[in-house]
Amino acid sequence: MKEFLKRKDIEISLKRYGIDALGAMAQGLFCSLLIGTIINTVGTQFKIPFLTTTVATIAGSDYTVGGLASAMSGPAMAVAIGYALKCPPLVLFSMITVGFAANALGGAGGPLAVLFVAILAAEFGKAVSKETKVDILVTPLVTIAVGVFFSWLIAPPLGRAAMAVGNLIMWATELQPFLMGILVAVVVGMALTLPISSAAICAALGLTGLAGGAAVAGCCAQMVGFAVISFKENKWGGLVSQGIGTSMLQMGNIIKNPRIWIAPTLASAITGPIATCIFGLRMDGAPVSSGMGTCGLVGQIGVYTGWVNQIAEGARGPITGFDWLGLVLISFVLPAVFSLAIHAVVKKLGWVKEGDLKL
Q: Using CA atoms, how far apart are residues 251 and 177, in angstroms rounded to an integer?
């Protein structure tokens, strides 16, 4: 069996499923749901007819350009997962159907259902790939059959469980914005820096609202924090690559000296409750944006998109200067100030020395 699994490149491990597949799922979400949301927001705000008018009507539902992109989130996630699991072509192409089924049957918690179902379907498909003379029939049939079966069997309960956990976190944040602001900001922020996907976690749990705002704060603190405290070692290239790229670049240095993580993490513990208690910062855009921070400014776009959507629904008034002030302070200014101040203390204590943050 070990020889068979090795020959088929089926690696049952936390890294393959919890890091590679989860990270790829987030990329699939970016290329579908997130891009679709951005297209819709741009079209609405700049009144671009091509982006706001219906371009297709399918089964009675009207779709804009952005709507078509968002509708493909299930297939996009599944194909991305299949790519991360190194699926051969016939398995990879079959994942389109698997992703659509899992996402549809998973409901609001579809991303988590897609993750589990896509992994199962991909590994079964890889197991039978090129094992018969009629591979072009057997491989897609097995991959799709396994995917649709598990979508029917486990996608609905997985979706409900994910949403229940997400709703619990959001309810607790509304009830205890200070304590939950700290907890959510620190946990999601650290997940962003670790080699796992904070964006995929937020998407799977459907994390929005005040909890989404705390998550954005925590992620920004990690990215901006590492960018500014390592500026002396990494200059402008490091500032940009970490500040609007990813703080995951520091993971190797964190393993060498975990104390370099103190400043950004404590900064997130401070900015989280400031976001929830003082500014009431909410992230009501696509849940995946909650775990993005300043990466491509996706977190900020998500917050703005939420404002726009709520105004359109009559759920809130116009965007105020206080809203913009909160977003700018939480996203950029406060993470930089707190991280620099805390890092100065850490360096004075001798816990971090020059070169520890060099990329």
A: 30
148 and 285 share one domain: no
Query: SS3 for 283?
Result: strand
Chain position carrying tokens 């913009």: 324
Residue 258 φ then ψ, to 5°: -60, -20
Tokens read off for 180: 């939950």
Same domain, 91 and 238: no
The token pair at 286 is 């696509």
Determine the number of helices (DSSP H) and then strands (DSSP E) in the chain: 19, 2
Residues 6 or more apart from 11 whose CB is under 8 A from it? Answer: 5
Alpha-carbon Rg for the chain, nearest whole angstrom, is: 21
- Shared domain for 142 and 183, answered yes or no, is no
CB 72 within 8 A of CB 63: no
The token duo for 294 is 């300043």
Per residue in 238-290, pLDDT tens? 999 999 888 888 988 999 999 999 999 999 999 999 999 999 999 998 898 99
The string of DSSP codes covering 47-75 is T-HHHHS--EEETTEEE-HHHHHHHTHHH
Q: Is 171 inside a domain boundary?
A: no
Note whether 195 and 323 are same-domain residues: yes
Largest CA distance in the chain: 68
pTM of the model: 0.81
To 5 degrees, how large is the angle CA 162–CA 168–CA 172? 150
216 burial (CB, 10 Å; 0-12 / 13-18 / 19+) is: buried
Contact 100, 74 (CB under 8 A): yes
Tell me the residue range of the domain where 239 lies: 176-348
Q: Where are the beta strands (DSSP E) in 133-183?
A: none
